[in-house]
Specification:
The protein has 300 residues and is mainly α. The protein contains 13 helices and two strands; from the N terminus they run αααααααααααααββ. A two-stranded antiparallel ribbon has the order 1-2.
């Protein structure tokens, strides 16, 4: 992979890692569901020109995927981060990887190798360590919300694979346009009385909203799609492992969160498990699915 692409992939991992801290900052003053609704509203303004890049038969799948990966996923995620330390939420969210692999096995017929099964068990074990004894600033409900957000993302990812191929830029545009009003309605029903926070929020909270929309959202995903067009998923996937590490480091610096032994042990187990799930070895392999066998270049 060219050095420029490697540096851009590193930048994407940093932008996405920093987004957890931004959500934590904004969610301290703004209702979390309303915050993500505003995030998507800002993104929609920039993505409107790409709405036309969709085939008619893809419209219903777009709505389904947008509702799950946009509204449900981010709504749960922001509500969870509001109740949990940024470092802990970044680790628990890594369950999206084993969730995706399990769903791909159940719905797409992909085979789970022993290494991947071990990785899944380690990842869930690490999260159980975090759930066993939450810190004073955390709640078990918040952790479960982040885990459910990871599950929603995994469901959306598998549906995208099953219902696709879909234009990724058009999907981002439709997700923003569909999710913004859905989240606004959800916020009105659940957070209506908290909307007064919009009038009292500091500039720091508003900058956090803008960051999640422009930097973590538009720029991060724009660069990622561009990199996917130039490089294989196998080359890029290791950089995704850096996202939780950046999230933990940035939250420790900006939010002064303390890393106790529970976070270290649980985080180490989870990240080791995710690494095993995503590890690619440079050798020939046979990738098996139910009823099909095809040649590849890694052990997955």
């Amino acid at each position: 992979m060219p050095l420029k692409d490697s540096l851009l992939a590193l930048l994407v991992a940093f932008l996405w890692g920093a987004q957890v801290t931004a959500v934590k900052i904004g969610g301290a003053e703004l209702p979390p569901i309303l915050m993500v609704a505003m995030r998507y509203a800002i993104m929609a303004l920039f993505l409107l020109p790409f709405l036309k890049n969709v085939k008619r038969q893809h419209f219903v799948p777009m709505i389904t995927i947008a509702t799950i990966t946009g509204t449900l996923h981010f709504g749960l995620l922001y509500c969870g981060i509001a109740r949990v330390d940024a470092s802990t939420s970044a680790i628990i969210y890594q369950l999206s990887v084993p969730f995706t692999l399990v769903l791909a096995f159940a719905l797409l017929g992909e085979v789970l190798r022993v290494r991947v099964l071990v990785g899944i068990l380690l990842a869930f074990g690490g999260v159980l360590v975090l759930l066993a004894k939450p810190s004073e600033s955390e709640s078990s409900i918040g952790m479960l919300l982040v885990a459910l957000a990871a599950l929603a993302f995994a469901i959306g990812s598998v549906l995208t694979k099953r219902l696709g191929p879909l234009n990724p830029v058009a999907l981002s545009a439709w997700t923003a346009v569909i999710s913004a009003p859905q989240l606004l309605l959800w916020s009105f029903i659940q957070e209506g009385e908290q909307w007064v926070g919009v009038y009292t929020a500091s500039a720091q909270a508003w900058w956090a909203v803008v960051y999640t929309a422009l930097s973590g959202g538009l720029l991060g995903f724009g660069l990622w799609f561009w990199l996917l067009g130039r490089n294989s998923v196998q080359q890029l996937s290791p950089y995704l492992l850096l996202v939780p590490l950046f999230a933990i480091v940035i939250s420790q610096i900006v939010l002064a969160e303390m890393a106790d032994h529970r976070l270290i042990i649980g985080g180490a187990l989870t990240l080791l498990g995710v690494t095993l799930c995503q590890l690619r070895l440079s050798r020939n392999f046979v990738f098996k699915t139910r009823g099909s066998v095809r040649q590849g270049t890694t052990d997955e």
